[in-house]
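thread: overnight batch results

M.L. [08:02]
morning all. the overnight job finished for the chain we discussed friday. pasting input first so we're all looking at the same thing
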Amino acid sequence: MLKKLLPLILCLILCMSLCCCGYEYFELNLEGVYTREFEGTELNVYNWGEYISDGSEGCMDVNREFERLTGIKVNYTTFESNETMYSQLKNGGVSYDIIIPSDYMIARLKSENMLAKIDTASLSNYHYIDDSYKGLFFDETQEYTVPYNVGMVGIIYNSALIKEPEHSWKALWDKKYENMSLNFNNPRDGFMTAQKLLGYSVNSTNLDEWNEACELLKDGKDVLQSYVMDEIYGKLETGEAAIGPYYAGDYLVMYDVNEDLRFFYPEEGTNIFIDSVCIPKCVKNYEAAMLYINFLLEPDIALANAEYIGYASPHNAVINNPDYCYYQNEILYPNQEDMPYVEYYHDIPENVRMHYEDLWLDLKLY
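M.L. [08:03]
and the structure it wrote out:
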């Protein structure tokens, strides 16, 4: 019997060996101290899709490097929008130790007492965060967040399929691009494209202005191919669609796949955002979460993430590194004279939020 099982056992050992050898660990120059005190525990991380260096195409696998270093198992799941993340957290079906929401959602989570405090004084690498990203409106006392990425929204188009559009949000409504145009599949960003074209604030509390933006978005459905989030990668990279709004960092990643893609910030202005690492109140492994945050702030790790994700970094060791592949990139880090007019999203009154969410549902059914 053993002779019959031996080939099978050897085959299984070989397969396991091949799987384990598929990733080569990096030689890291770490500045923090990482113990194995929490070895065998688990850390639940909830992040945006395509938002951490994951080991693909020879890049660093940040989560595996952390697991190797600490012995803590990382359970990593992703979301497509702040609203999806909020619903999951609010429903309480799953406990998370790390979340990475955007500014306005952080303000909401904080106001609803859903965030735990972060002792930044105990993070040895926190000093790398540029002061310009500290103490902002969503965390004025800097007690709940550690900045992770900075971005702005613009329009991407395929120069092989269409001529250069007017550098305006009007491009998304241009009938020349019928069934080739995309828009965001989340209400805050989707409404922003119409609000900026109408000259309204993205933080308007005037319900009539939200109504008008919704009507404009309804008019645009004659041109629209579909509402998307990360699906935009495949659609624009392959030429299935020709134009759509998305985040500047994602454009740079798409450009690596298709060099016909182009990008611009619309003349009417756009949204700027800061995504930050937070610890939710439902945290089960707080000390491991703090280790993970400090690990993300390591210069080698922050650089790997910045190069993989393509967003602007709030980390000075990245920004000032001439070997950084996006060093002084004019899209991520425009000069003052080239900086578009920008506006942050703020957490707005509940009655306004409920109103625009109802409008969004109506828009999607229209």
